[in-house]
Design a protein that fits this description.
Elements lengths: L1 H45 L4 H6 L5 H10 L6 H13 L13 H36 L4 H15 L2 H15 L11 H4 L9 H7 L3 H38 L2 H8 L4 H30 L2 H6 L5 H11 L2 H29 L5
């Protein structure tokens, strides 16, 4: 009986703190999302673009102006407008696009898979090369491979994506002809692909149309490599910095004194201690790729999220701009929450 009570007490001491921690995390996420909603609401009200004139045009009569303002709820007090705004975004209603007349949520759902497919492949390439490169550069500090890693990082930081994209199209598409041109797919294959998920690689693979898959990949690989270069530069440089700091710790010297092999120390002990930091770098890089691929999408005529948001901003389509801004904020919040969960899984000290 005593053992049963003690086990129950131990269970409560484990479950209750985790439950409280989970509720705190959920509360902070909800407060952040509420603040994000308030920020986007104020952006839509403070910009010098009149949403009524954007719909009716500059020659609208006063009666038409007042009627449209009432229809859009702009004649209500600010708090009522904010409450209606919260209710609408909870139902994924960002209003209609002024350019297409379609719901903004449908427009974002149409263009976002293209950017996600591009950014995901770029992040896989950047992480798959950047992390090992950073580790090896730290282990062989000031060696030729370390200098190569620094040059790659410098190139990734300093070379503009639009210039790399143009040069890549000239060399690999126009001259060599080994990659596809602008766009996601050639027109001759466009009607052979039935979108299911919105990710053309997945849709073509599910349909078993490998010729379409190859064509989609040929269009995707060059912009993905250019985006991957910037991610690779950041990931490799930060990984190198984290690893150098850990390689100078006393536990590494003690492990070497015990006769443990170099690479076993590096991957089993040192990299495990920097894994949480590397996850943070990779996650934030992925978030920036999802919302910051505007120049690359423009050069390659990629029908993605960044290009859609830029066109909406230039056209004064504030419903689309506010909807895109809200989506970007939610992406960062979700990825940070994902990071926090991974911390707890990988590092028991954070639980």
């Amino acid at each position: 009986m005593t053992k049963s009570l003690s086990a129950t007490g131990r269970g409560r001491t484990i479950v209750l703190p985790r439950l409280v921690g989970g509720l705190k995390t959920l509360g902070s996420v909800l407060v952040t999302l509420l603040g994000l909603a308030a920020l986007t609401f104020m952006i839509g009200r403070m910009l010098p673009i009149d949403p009524v004139l954007a719909v009716l045009g500059d020659n609208a009569t006063q009666d038409a102006y007042d009627a449209m303002a009432a229809k859009m709820g702009l004649d209500q007090p600010l708090l009522v407008q904010f409450a209606d705004y919260l209710w609408n975004i909870l139902h994924f209603d960002f209003g209609n696009s002024l350019l297409s007349g379609r719901p903004v949520a449908d427009e974002i759902a149409r263009v976002f898979p293209a950017t996600m497919e591009l950014a995901t492949l770029a992040m896989i390439i950047g992480t798959g090369i950047g992390v090992p490169l950073g580790v090896v550069a730290a282990v062989y500090r000031n060696s030729p491979i370390d200098h190569v890693a620094r040059i790659v990082s410098l190139l990734g930081y300093s070379a503009p994506n639009f210039w790399l994209g143009l040069m890549g199209l000239v060399v690999f598409y126009s001259v060599l002809g080994i990659v596809g041109g602008p766009g996601r797919i050639d027109m001759i294959y466009e009607f052979d692909l039935q979108p299911v998920t919105g990710f053309f690689l997945i849709d073509s693979a599910l349909a078993g149309k490998w010729d379409v898959f190859g064509n989609v990949l040929s269009h995707l690989i060059l912009p993905a490599l250019i985006l991957a270069l910037s991610a690779l530069a950041y990931v490799s440089r930060m990984t190198r910095t984290f690893m150098i700091d850990q390689l100078e710790q006393e536990y590494v010297i003690a492990a070497r004194a015990k006769g443990i092999g170099r690479w076993r120390i590096v991957w089993t002990h040192v990299f495990r201690n920097v894994a949480v930091q590397v996850i943070t770098v990779v996650t934030l890089s992925y978030a920036f790729l999802l919302e910051g691929a505007v120049l690359t999408e423009t050069v390659f005529a990629w029908p993605g999220f960044g290009r859609y948001m830029t066109n909406s901003l230039l056209s004064g389509d504030m419903n689309s701009v506010v909807g895109c801004t809200l989506v970007i904020g939610v992406i960062f919040v979700v990825l940070n929450l994902f990071c926090d969960i991974l911390y707890r899984v990988i590092d028991p000290r954070t639980r």
